[in-house]
Write a structure and sequence with these properties.
Length: about 550
């Protein structure tokens, strides 16, 4: 039987599938471009680059357009700060791109490390980078050396530009023509282009300074601002301690400008560092209208230093001074007449009734081992005695002020040798440590305790002398104007102190009183600022 004749039938290819396969075989090409400034000329160049690469890729039949990635007005020294460049890298990792076009090595990166790192990373993924200006293809064997050379040149150019910009900024600082930054509460740009006071914000700034000088803590000020709905710089009622501290330490509020508080270490890392003296600073005084007087600003800086210098309470030592408390003025002022340790406010429960008392911290924490004869004082009796003492001071106000004026003026303008406050503070710390060791020995020894008591008494006397020296040293560094301001403040406080006054005022205590010593004979010794003292019975 004969086989049937073979018949071959041609089945035409599916045109849709053919086109799809051809599409897959095309090289997916993306372009990266960047302009480094926001000038009109550069922005024109930016638009021109986008148009150029779009047309350039479309004209090549073997290429398929994979997008334009363009960073506008962003420096090229740090790749992580270029969002479009990072998007390009992510798309390459997702295998969406086969090749990258860019104008030059400098446009790709001005950082040598970044340039080579990203080129190598892309090469490992099978993705080449073509630099038009240098006619370099990163996929070729000898390309890396030339890319490295051009990257070094690009980085050097960036460093030179950065140095020129930095020089220009410093020249403006030296000449006092540096622009005022309006990132601050209480100021706005006036019609003449100069800073002017914004009333609502300025009132908040003054309130913060007044409250701090009145003895309130940062937490208390924060709570008060939130409660009263005071707006911060960002327009919200969102306050924290750091924002308040920034207002208290910013010299711009007294009309000055301190320039170059921070600096950028180099154009590559662009890390901002606090200037601790590595770079020069430039202080421009009377640069703009102040919100706060220079006297108040200086007083706040002194108060900040005083509060921060207080040692924190610790169970490891016996005579700690304690951290600053803005809640009770007496926490800062009330001192045990027997051992020199501050008193602490305590709440007792007696017969189901609350009773507020003040006790020596040594007595609270260590019983009678360290401080045997200190007394416990009811708060109501203590307040009455203090009010009586201040009324007596107000009754002889002229005499008090004369003594204060004499003492403060002498401390600043007298012929005494200027004392080194830092050295005195170090001596105080040393003597405190020695006294603490003696007290620890006193509390732990099973033998003769008299030798430890003798050391404690000697060290306590040394501390009293050193603290007087420190007070004198601190006053010596201030001006006569500050002395006048302090005297005026004390005079005002004494004037407002009614001779028949019975209500206790924390504000008056902070303003008028240097310290109050509680004696074992049920008396208190009130020492006013400037040296005037009064003794009252409890």
């Amino acid at each position: 039987m004969l086989a049937e004749r073979k018949v071959v039938t041609k089945i035409e290819a599916n045109p849709l599938l053919t086109a799809r396969e051809k599409e897959r075989s095309l090289v997916r090409v993306a372009a990266y471009c960047r302009v480094s400034t926001d000038s009109d000329e550069q922005l024109d160049s930016y638009q021109a680059q986008i148009t150029y690469y779009t047309d350039y890729i479309a004209k090549n039949p073997d290429w398929r357009f994979a997008g334009i990635y363009a960073d506008e007005g962003i420096t090229g020294t740090k790749a992580e700060k270029r969002p479009e460049f990072q998007r390009l890298m992510r798309d390459c990792k997702k295998r969406k791109i086969d090749m990258i076009l860019t104008k030059s090595v400098a446009r790709f990166a001005r950082n040598t490390v970044d340039s080579l790192s990203y080129v190598r990373r892309l090469k490992a993924q099978g993705i080449g980078v073509f630099f038009e200006e240098q006619n370099l293809d990163s996929m070729k064997a000898d390309s890396e050396m030339f890319i490295g050379i051009h990257s070094v040149l690009a980085q050097a150019e960036s460093e030179n530009i950065s140095a020129n910009v930095r020089w220009g900024i410093q020249q403006r600082m030296k000449s006092g023509t540096f622009k005022f930054r309006y990132n601050i509460l209480g100021y706005r740009k006036g019609a003449d282009g100069e800073p002017e006071i914004e009333p609502e914000g300025a009132e908040t700034v003054r309130l913060i300074y007044d409250k701090y000088l009145a003895g309130e803590s940062l937490d208390q000020i924060r709570a008060s601002l939130i409660e009263n709905g005071a707006k911060a710089f960002n327009g919200t009622v969102s306050w924290n301690k750091e924002s308040i501290r920034h207002i208290l330490t910013n010299e711009r509020f007294c009309g000055d400008m301190l320039l170059q508080k921070t600096y950028i270490d180099n154009c590559i890392s662009r890390k901002t560092k606090v200037n601790h003296g590595e770079m020069p600073k430039y202080l421009i005084t009377n640069n703009h209208v102040p919100i706060i007087s220079r006297d108040d600003f200086q007083r706040v800086q002194l108060e900040l230093a005083r509060r921060s210098s207080k040692r924190k309470v610790s169970s490891k030592t016996i005579t700690e001074q304690g951290k600053y408390s803005g809640k009770y003025a007496l926490s800062e002022k009330l001192i045990c007449g027997e051992c020199g340790t501050p008193y602490r406010r305590k709440t007792w429960m007696i017969g189901g009734q609350k009773k507020i008392v003040w006790r020596c911290i040594n007595r609270i924490e260590h019983g009678t081992r360290i401080c045997r004869d200190s007394i416990t004082v009811e708060e109501s009796r203590l307040h009455q005695a203090i009010c009586k003492g201040l009324c007596n001071a107000a009754a002889c106000r002229d005499e008090v002020l004369e003594l204060i004026k004499s003492n403060l003026s002498y401390a600043i303008t007298g012929n005494e040798k200027i004392l080194d406050a830092y050295a005195i503070q170090k001596n105080i710390e040393r003597v405190n440590d020695e006294m603490n060791q003696a007290m620890i020995g006193f509390s732990t020894t099973q033998g003769d305790k008299n030798k430890y008591l003798e050391v404690i008494n000697i060290k306590n006397s040394e501390l009293a002398v050193l603290r007087e020296q420190l007070a004198l040293a601190n006053k010596q560094v201030h001006s006569d104007d500050f002395t006048r301001f302090e005297i005026e403040k004390l005079e005002q406080a004494l004037t407002t102190c009614d001779m028949a006054q019975t209500s206790f005022s924390d504000s008056q205590i902070r303003t008028l009183v240097e310290c109050i010593r509680v004696n074992k004979k049920n008396t208190i010794h009130i020492v006013l600022k400037g040296g005037f003292s009064i003794t009252e019975e409890l």
